[in-house]
Amino acid sequence: MIKKELLYEGKAKKIFRTDDPNLLWVEYKDDATAFNGLKKGAVSGKGELNNKISAHFFRLLAQNGIESHLVAEKSHREMVVKSLQIIRVEVVLRNIAAGSLSKRLGLPEGTVLPSTVVEYYYKNDELHDPLVNDDHIRILDLATPEQMSEIKEIALKVNEVLRAHLAERELDLIDFKLEFGLHNGQIILGDEISPDTCRFWDKNTRKKLDKDRFRQDLGDVEQAYREVYRRLTGKQHTG
Ligand code: UDP
Of 72, 103, 215, 228, whose CB has the highest number of CB atoms within 10 Å? Predict the structure, then answer.
């Protein structure tokens, strides 16, 4: 397979065309942004770590019957994925209150939620990704009700698989964001699953091991991502 021209550059990844129209080439960047691009920076090693952590999670999910867009890892910071027709809904799952949920509902950070909360956000930079419900998704024609019920079912399963895997590694899965797309009419998990898109806390010390270290200027961002990688794979990251 051949890496062709750049199709799109996002905040954390570059997407290239390949010689196969069904496949895209993804390069993970070290750039970090938060608060809708208002806060910008770079975290050295982040691109490699997020590529490897995402691939680890996608393989774990595949072993549990959940298909993702991952086709192959190409280098430390690159993977080849299936080209998806993206569904413009971000799916957020929450087990413990943090971030915007804490703010919106006045729930102190760290409150254990009695059951998993599923939220949808409309992927639209101009509107700053507003929270939407099933009716909004329907009137905006972002996905059909049948597709949304399948997406919710897959997302809840992803939560169970990741939660159990992380718990064995003394990590709590606080919340995370998923994106889905269509490939030959089939709903497939896309984008990434990494400390950029999840909140992970050490089970014992409650130390934050995710992008909140960047958002909140807590320091040791790279070390936190490395620690997640080490816990997941049992290996030190040597990039
Ligand atoms: N998230 C993300 N991309 C976004 C918004 C949220 O990956 O554009 C992830 C975020 O890292 C967290 C979860 O989704 O794990 C819930 O985020 P929240 O709604 O609390 O928003 P935030 O506090 O990041 O503004």
Answer: 228
